[in-house]
Amino acid sequence: MLSRYNMLVLAIFCLFIGTTRGAEEKSKMKVGDKTIERTVQLRTHSIFAPYIDQDLQNRWWDFGADAYINTNKHIRLTRDRPSQMGYLWSRLPLTTTNFVTGESNNLYGDGFAIWLTKERAQPGPVFGSKDSFTGLGLFLDTYANSRHPYAFPRITGMIGDGNTQYDFGKDGDKQGIGACSLNFRRTNVATKIKITYIKDSVLDVKLQYKAWDDWTDCFRADGVSLPTAPFLGMSAMTGDVSDNHDIISVSTHSAIVSHGDLPFTESAKKRSSKKSTGSWTWFFLKMLLFAGVGFGGYYGYQEYRRRSRYSGMGNFGAGRSSGFAGFGGAGGVYSGGKRL
């Protein structure tokens, strides 16, 4: 018989487009119609046992409230006691444009949240973090506060705008961009959640809870836009129903997405429009320049013919009579259009 104990293993894979350095993993992954070519682990957003250094700190992560660390086992966000809350937050923001998150857990109690938000390390009432957040909150809710036509546990994704408050009475119903009901408690394997985000394109959530490497779709939302460079965080809270909420590890990866799979964003459209406009402007400038050169050449040729004609007349006059010598001399005062 399983005890009421939450083991939470979190694996974060952050995907971005660009050149990366480090140990590359070249296994390809398909996310909708996008292909992830390779991934590289980011130390700044990964954490494993023993979690802290000899100074009892971690240079990349902060934990607080009721959270504490067992260096041999886990980071415990909450103990099996009522009215507890705890958090784990990255100190640095994710400067990636696309990412995938995954975690494994056996949850009871009030639940757990994964955050990708502008704010960080601010305790509050929403699964242990602040309300009116800006960014993504993914809630693993194990306890229903009201009746619903769907079952619990429930996984819900919500995009906060910094002003909208979470609806506690209705468990965030009607506020989510997607949700699913899956019984990820008391499973034979460690439950894992994988969140994939591609900038301004798609947010995809999958669950592993039936068997190893057997991923079940939870939801996918298109056209999702998250804040630039969000912080990565995890938080948990207990109410009347309490449980341990433990994090075993966090592993963050950057990734390179196939160029042909990249979404054509508004900025790209603007750049393309500017490039097209610039090309036409340069074309017309070249045409005007060509026309100017042609006109100048034609005018110069006509002027040359006219001068040659005058010069010929002066020489003819000088040969016939000295009376025309002055005119002939006048015919030679121009050379190349310049007065000597």
UniProtKB/TrEMBL annotation:
Gene Ontology annotations for the cellular component aspect, listed alphabetically: COPII-coated ER to Golgi transport vesicle; endoplasmic reticulum membrane; endoplasmic reticulum-Golgi intermediate compartment; Golgi membrane
GO annotation, biological process: endoplasmic reticulum to Golgi vesicle-mediated transport
SUPFAM superfamilies per the UniProt record, alphabetical: Concanavalin A-like lectins/glucanases
Signal sequence, renumbered to the chain: 1-22
A GO term, aspect molecular function: D-mannose binding
Bilayer-spanning residue ranges: 280-301
Residue intervals of the L-type lectin-like domain: 39-255
Pfam families per UniProt: Lectin_leg-like
Name of this chain's protein: Related to vesicular integral-membrane protein VIP36
Organism: Armillaria ostoyae
